Amino acid sequence: MVVVHRAYGLRFMIYVDDHEPAHVHVCGDGTAKVVLAGVDGDPELVYVVGMTRADQRRMMRTIIEQQDMLLDRWKDMHG
């Protein structure tokens, strides 16, 4: 697991030996998994457990703002 970004007390992580589609795991006061580019190209929430709605909004806003960087990091790690 590599922490590729931090914001608002959240850690955005990519696992080295993970599977497609490109996604990040987010940990803070709870956990979530978000696909970086869904069918329409926008990030898609897969699941969230124990995270406040405020943290969910911050998480999604951060992923949208950092989408290109996160996808580049995924490609660097997984080809």
Tell me the strand order in the biggest sheet: 1-2-3-4-5
Number of discrete domains:
1
Whole-angstrom Rg: 11 Å
Principal-axes shape call? globular
Number of strands: 5
Order of helices and strands: EEEEEHH
> What is the helix fraction of residues, given as a range?
25-40%
Descriptive key words:
alpha+beta; five-stranded antiparallel β-sheet; 5 strands
Could you characterize the architecture of this molecule?
InterPro entries: DUF4160. Pfam families: DUF4160 (PF13711). This protein is α+β, with helices and mostly antiparallel strands and 79 residues long. The protein has one domain (2-73). It has two helices and five strands. The protein has helices at 53-65, 67-78, and strands at 2-7, 10-14, 23-28, 30-35, 44-49. The chain has a five-stranded antiparallel β-sheet with strand order 1-2-3-4-5, with helices on one face. A hairpin with an 8-residue loop joins strand 2 and strand 3. The radius of gyration is 11 Å and the shape is globular. The two termini are 16 Å apart. The relative contact order is 0.24. The model has no long low-confidence stretch (mean pLDDT 97).
